[in-house]
Amino acid sequence: MEPYICSESIHAMDLNQRFEDYIAADQKIEAKDWMPDDYRKTLIRQISQHAHSEIIGMLPEGNWITRAPSLQRKAILLAKVQDEAGHGLYLYSAAETLGAQRDDLMDALIEGRAKYSSIFNYPTLTWADMGAIGWLVDGAAIMNQVPLCKCSYGPYARAMVRVCKEESFHQRQGFQIMLNLCEGTDEQREMAQDSLNRWWWPSLMMFGPNDESSTHNEQSMRWKIKRFSNDELRQRFVDMTIPQVELLGLTVPDKDLKWNQSTGHYEMGAIDWQEFFNVIAGNGPCNKERIAARKKAHRDGQWVRQAASAYAEKMRTKVTPNQTNAA
Ligand code: BYC
After folding, report:
1. What's the gap between Cα 251 and its chain centre?
2. From 1-5, 30-34, 47-51, 197-201, the region with the lowest mean pLDDT
3. Whose CA is nearest to atom 18 of ligand 1?
4. Closest atom of ligand 1 relative to the 116 alpha carbon
């Protein structure tokens, strides 16, 4: 295929056709390539929401670092939460390749204008929640993010490769916490079941609204930003997770869940979409607390940003010995 060149001599319609042909041929669009404005906007929206989710997602688990039941668990949880910070940083950088300014993205988050994943607006009440988050939330994230490694925008796709490797470790450590609890005392098993009861439905909501209510699905699938629809990924997640629930000896809080022999899939009960839309509108159990924590961190970190900028400016204007000699 011809290299994807951006030349001003090419007519706008030809540019658009070339872009569509590139996407159809499964080629990657890179930061400096021509792209339709809406493709750029859609990517900035999705990538920045994803970055915000990683950063806000540090809070529910960060809440348990000082209360982890052993030194080993503390070290693992600390590493996991640090990984999420790293994911946020790769993703903000990927959004910057599209012309977004990080300060604007951060302002949108702390002023409550930007979305982040609904799941992080639920509280972490017990240690078992560290297991359920790793197992279910990171499990759902992997299901959603592995296809993003093949997304049409190169910098996003490449960032996702490393993110997915780390998420895979997160998912396993979460499942191991659940397994240990389920092999423990009655009280520990009850704690694991209670946690599954509280995280099951919010985890299914992470995949986004049903396909018929999804505003961006069709276009994002056509541009190969999304490779599978919200409902397809949700179904894959349920099919993958139910055998794991059985292995743990737990049950999901869905009395309508049943195996359909003819389709080879589990059928799930109705999701409470009212709850989902309420949470993403800012009215979930912890939305206000999460934004307040993020605002405080931003305020407390101001001196670090100022010091880094002052240092960068000093380096920029510093006269080196060679420059002095040349003068
Ligand atoms: N929560 O048209 P739709 C992690 C919004 S973090 C909130 O289907 P789209 C982790 C959606 O934005 C992993 N909002 O949208 C971190 C849209 O609103 P706007 C986070 C949601 O984009 C720390 C409207 O609903 N993963 O793993 O085609 C610790 C209509 O939806 C949600 C990502 O961000 C939601 N759950 O599809 C542990 C993955 N769902 O923008 C773990 C990247 C939908 O029009 N993102 N909305 O105002 C995606 O794959 C897609 O953006 C989604 C939604 C599948 C999430």
Report:
1. 26
2. 1-5
3. 115
4. 7
